[in-house]
């Protein structure tokens, strides 16, 4: 562990800084920490340091996008998957750049967001399959820095017990956007279709692009930078934000730059198990890009179908927050992932075995809530396990996000129109993916338990800090 910086002269240490973990009394449960050495907040000042665009194409499909652009066969599926090619190419370089401290994350991420808003709006200008493929590819490139970058920023401000809830709040924004996107699409298609010679799906891209650009401007003033360089924190708060993460990091190492961090990440075999787990998880979430189509299999008209996509996502948002809170409170991951993905698997199986309208709609709640709620737990686990340096943490998060999002390239072809309304291949595959997530979580749990035993016995470094890996 790196030594903590000394408090400013003339001020008492305990008034601004968290006490050194070694000096705390072992009888103080909050200070002593739980089974992994993770502690609750001991300084009251800690408490104060706190995709709609992508969903437009699945919704536009219900407003004759395929007919207007002349898409045939699997061309729509290709348009879905091509976004993730561009999305994957930029993630690792982007996070390495952010962790290098050569750019201000607030400025960098806001510019990227404004760029994807412009590209998304340009989708309204496409006239054919080639144009849509090109726009989707560049949309992926411009979107790539944001999500892994946001995960990295959260990981450098929040501890192991705090990170899952914060990621679930971040991811809930995506979930709400997905649910609200259907309502926005329904309103747009019913009021603006054919207005000024533009189809409803074209207006949808224009409106969402303009709104996204406006939010990007706000991001310039609201997003943080690194803990020690965030402008709207006081000097004392900056130091506190930095020190508390150092104190909470298992086997903290000296930072040696983004390239060294990338090498550190690839030398850690746990990276690849976590990457497989998250790949299987996002594979099971492939229904996202086809959710309006899946809900459409219930047999209702376009407007009702779009409205019906919203309630499952509202339930999913609430489930994600609850799971994030309980995972953080109990510093537990394996059983939470097992419960979430178990519910998702049941939902997928129901969709496989029945065409009953009520049962299939209930299954949408089960697999959406279960699968999405596990996301914050897995990504929080990445940060807690592979965060020995900020650079390693950034490289690990971006690599795992790349491997995970690669699933959207092949899973897009699991939903051919000819397989509706049951989509048996897709739902059966999703159930298998969910089971693989559960198996991976238990494998990692046993691995970390074995590592902790070695730390306690002195075979591995880390026992002197009183910190162990959480599972």
From TrEMBL:
Its main location: membrane. PANTHER family: MAJOR FACILITATOR SUPERFAMILY (MFS) PROFILE DOMAIN-CONTAINING PROTEIN, PERMEASE-RELATED. Gene3D superfamilies: MFS general substrate transporter like domains. GO terms for cellular component: membrane. GO terms for molecular function: transmembrane transporter activity. It comes from Aspergillus caelatus. The keyword Transmembrane helix applies. It is a multi-pass membrane protein. Belongs to the major facilitator superfamily. This is Major facilitator superfamily domain-containing protein. It comes from the Eukaryota. Residues 1-454 form the Major facilitator superfamily (MFS) profile domain. The keyword Transmembrane applies. It is found in: Membrane. The chain crosses the membrane at residues 75-94, 106-126, 132-157, 169-189, 201-223, 271-291, 303-325, 337-359, 365-382, 394-411, 423-448. Pfam families: MFS_1. Residues 1-53 are annotated as: Disordered. Residues 39-50 have a biased composition (Polar residues). Keywords: Membrane, Transmembrane, Transmembrane helix, Transport. Residues 17-32 have a biased composition (Basic and acidic residues).
């Amino acid at each position: 562990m790196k030594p903590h910086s000394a408090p400013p002269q003339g001020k008492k240490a305990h008034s601004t800084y968290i006490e050194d973990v070694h000096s705390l009394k072992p009888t103080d449960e909050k200070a002593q920490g739980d089974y992994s050495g993770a502690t609750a907040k001991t300084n009251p000042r800690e408490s104060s340091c706190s995709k709609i665009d992508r969903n437009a194409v699945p919704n536009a499909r219900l407003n004759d996008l395929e007919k207007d652009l002349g898409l045939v066969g699997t061309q729509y599926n290709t348009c879905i998957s091509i976004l993730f090619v561009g999305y994957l190419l930029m993630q690792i370089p982007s996070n390495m750049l952010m962790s290098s401290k050569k750019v201000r994350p607030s400025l960098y991420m806001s510019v990227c967001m404004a760029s994807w808003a412009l590209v998304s709006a340009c989708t309204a200008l496409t006239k054919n399959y080639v144009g849509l493929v090109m726009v989707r590819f560049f949309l992926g490139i411009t979107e790539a820095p944001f999500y892994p970058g946001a995960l990295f920023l959260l990981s450098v401000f929040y501890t192991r017990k705090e990170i899952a809830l914060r990621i679930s709040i971040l991811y809930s924004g995506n979930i709400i956007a997905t649910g609200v996107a259907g309502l926005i699409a329904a309103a747009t298609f019913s009021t603006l279709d054919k207005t000024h010679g533009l189809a409803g799906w074209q207006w949808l891209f224009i409106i969402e692009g303009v709104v996204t650009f406006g939010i990007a401007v706000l991001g310039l003033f609201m997003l943080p930078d690194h803990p020690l360089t965030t402008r709207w924190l006081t000097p004392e708060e900056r130091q506190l934000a930095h020190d508390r993460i150092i104190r909470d990091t298992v086997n903290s190492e000296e930072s040696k730059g983004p390239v060294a961090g990338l090498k550190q990440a690839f030398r850690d075999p746990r990276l690849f198990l976590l990457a497989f787990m998250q790949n299987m998880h996002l594979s099971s979430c492939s229904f996202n890009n086809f959710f309006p189509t899946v809900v459409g299999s219930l047999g209702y008209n376009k407007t009702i179908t779009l409205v019906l996509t919203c309630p499952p996502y509202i339930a999913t948002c609430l489930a994600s927050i609850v799971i994030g809170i309980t995972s953080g409170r109990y510093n537990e991951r394996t059983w939470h992932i097992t419960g979430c993905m178990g519910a998702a698997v049941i939902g997928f199986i129901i969709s496989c075995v029945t065409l009953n309208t009520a049962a299939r709609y209930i299954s949408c709640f089960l697999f959406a809530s279960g699968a999405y709620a596990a996301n914050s737990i897995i990504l929080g686990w990445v940060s807690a396990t592979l965060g020995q340096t900020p650079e390693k943490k950034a490289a690990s998060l971006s690599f795992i996000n790349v491997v995970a999002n690669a699933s959207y390239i092949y899973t897009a072809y699991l939903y051919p129109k000819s397989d509706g309304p049951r989509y048996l291949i897709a739902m059966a595959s999703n159930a298998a993916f969910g089971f693989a997530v559960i198996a991976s979580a238990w494998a990692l749990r046993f691995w970390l338990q074995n590592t902790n035993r070695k730390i306690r016995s002195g075979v591995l470094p880390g026992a002197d800090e009183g910190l162990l890996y959480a599972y």
